[in-house]
Amino acid sequence: MRMSSSVFVLDNGGWTAKVGLSTDSPITVPNSIMKAKSERRRPFIGNQIEECRDVSGLYFMLPLQKGYLINWDVQKTVWDYIFSKECCPINLSHTSLIITEPPFNFPSVQEAMAEIFFEEYEISSLLRINPSTLSCYNYRHKNPTSKCCIIVDIGYSFSHIIPFVNDMKIKAGIRRIDVGGKLLTNHLKEILSYRQLHVMDETYVVNQVKEDSCFVSQNFYNDMETAKLKIEDNTIVKDYVLPDFTTIRRGYLTDAGTTLDQQVLRMNNERFSIPEILFHPSDVGIRQMGIPEAIMDCLKACEEETWPHLLSNIVLIGGSSKFPGLQNRVLNEVRSLAPIDYTIKVHLPEDPITYSWEGGKLLSKDPGYSNLIVKREEYEEEGHALCYDKFDI
Amino acid sequence: MAGRESGRIKDSIQKRILDDDSRKRRQKKALDALEQDNFHEDPHADLVMSKKVPKFQEDNKNSTRKRKTRSAEYFKLRFRKNFIQLVEEDLNYNSSSPNYTTAQVPQSCYPERHFCTVCGFPSTYTCIPCGARYCSVKCLGTHLDTRCLKWTA
């Protein structure tokens, strides 16, 4: 049988899509259409935002809501951009596509996806898969002796904890926490606007503030005491110099009180109380477990003999796992919750954002790859039923 | 016997106290706000896009292609379902096996922590009318001036 000439991996995230041919390295594309106040002639799709000089007051149109594909018109426009000459020029009719979807994706979304790719883009074959499965594949590829792993995907829309035993996902053990990067950014926006400066319209800039200045505390109440000290003794307080889009394009963190001529945000307990929500969602009134507790809860759904293997292979992926200190905090908290005779290891990949994409790249070279996919001819013959049989949810 | 009683107690009776339902409503509103994509309105909403303007992109060059590509608008209409509809549909369709609703983590077994709604530091006091937390008289003052009962829905 003739093999498809190329494989394109599309990790369709809520904030960014990670895209590229399996022979290349991934490109990160904002998965949204953005409208700027300063540029009224056109919207910006994906990476076109780099052409926009002044990104203050950016308005976002996102295809995904709570992590699931809802706004198809926006998504189609972004995909058109991704497959165009501007981003990744590929011949779709000779391409096999790996696309990611969240756990428990809804059947009607899945049907719509298959229809759009086979009938509109006319791709030669499709593999619809969880980003966690790709990450698991990537992890197993690098650690062949690890039979089990727990993928902790801290994304933009939510966080998932997904256990794998012998490469099989344990569906009953999947846990979702409704806290992700979006909620963190929005909460930071809210408290900054109340305490200092109205930044409710500045999602894009505040997201950068979050990325540049937030960290995960190792001893929360101690850090709170430190943050109460005067500037001279306070090791946490910093000033964030805001971008003005003439000389400063992206803001940066600096010592408190040293900048006089620029507009700054004073970052004190905000620096660590924002990522803290991942560990205590109840801090903002979400009555759910934090990540370490949810990891332990997910174990309950797995057989006890797999526990030591699962606990020594915890893998963090997703953009929000990049907060400094997060890996260590997860390790310490799981350590204190788990039985003492189990070894606990928390693995943070070099780039947790593209880890799933890299997994897709490796999977496309797997000898079993051609058995996983649905070809266009097969889809035309058997339709959605075949997709249900072949693709795991 | 009128007259001699504490002024503070008299005032506190007159003070409006939010009931549990409206406190919950307020909290739900705050949580919904955390899910918003944008706080402000579409800055281009008042622009009228002319449909007659030709698009100088690949569409023109590819005119030899047989297939007509469908517009993004077509797919919006074709797959029109909102999030709540999808969750309900999923619950009806596969209620026995693990699904979106069952995957949500349960409530934590640890007690909630409380932080001052004004400055963010750990707090010990609760505002009587609205239930917000505060840590000092200074923060209570700010809270009363800016937020307390000011947003009542």
Name the strands of the widest sheet of chain B in spatial order: 1-2
Number of domains of chain A: 3
The CATH architecture term of the largest domain in chain A is 2-Layer Sandwich
Within CATH, the superfamily of the largest domain in chain A carries the name: ATPase, nucleotide binding domain
Apparent shape of chain A: globular
Overall helicity of chain B = 25-40%
Seen as an oligomer or otherwise, the chain set is heterodimer
What Rg of chain B, in angstroms, do the CA atoms define?
Answer: 27 Å
Largest interface: A-B, 75 and 56 residues
- What amount of the residues of chain A lies in strands? 15-25%
Pfam families (chain A): Actin (PF00022)
Main location (chain A): cytoplasm
InterPro entries (chain A): Actin (IPR004000), ATPase_NBD (IPR043129)
Organism (chain A): Ceratosolen solmsi marchali
What does it look like?
The complex is a heterodimer of chains A (393) and B (153). The mean pLDDT of chain A is 93. Chain A has a six-stranded mixed beta sheet with strand order 3-2-1-9-10-20, with helices on both faces. In chain A, strands 11, 12, 13, 14, 18 and 19 form a six-stranded mixed beta sheet that branches. Chain A has a three-stranded antiparallel beta sheet with strand order 5-4-6. Chain A has helices at residues 72-82, 107-120, 131-142, 181-195, 203-213, 220-228, 270-273, 291-299, 307-311, 326-337, 355-363, 369-372, 376-382, 384-390; strands at 6-12, 16-21, 27-30, 33-35, 44-45, 59-61, 64-65, 68-69, 95-100, 125-129, 148-154, 159-165, 168-169, 175-177, 238-241, 252-255, 264-267, 314-317, 346-347, 374-375. Chain A folds into three domains: 6-132 and 353-390, ATPase, nucleotide binding domain (Nucleotidyltransferase, domain 5, 2-Layer Sandwich); 133-179 and 286-347, ATPase, nucleotide binding domain (Nucleotidyltransferase, domain 5), CATH 3.30.420.40; 181-275, Actin, Chain A, domain 4 (Alpha-Beta Complex). Chain A is globular and about 70 Å long. Chain A is of the alpha+beta class. The longest helix of chain A has 15 residues, at 181-195. In chain A, helix 10 (326-337) links the parallel strand 18 and strand 19 (346-347). Chain B has a domain at 113-153. By secondary structure, chain B is an all-alpha fold. In chain B, strands 1-2 form a two-stranded antiparallel ribbon. Chain B has six helices and two strands, in the order H-H-H-H-H-E-E-H. Residues 58-66 of chain B have low confidence and may be disordered. In chain B, strand 1 (125-126) and strand 2 form a beta hairpin. Chain B has helices at residues 7-14, 20-35, 58-61, 72-78, 83-93, 137-146, and strands at 125-126, 133-134. Helices cover 37% and strands 3% of the residues of chain B. The radius of gyration of chain B is 27 Å and the shape is elongated. The chains are: A alpha+beta (393), B mainly alpha (153).
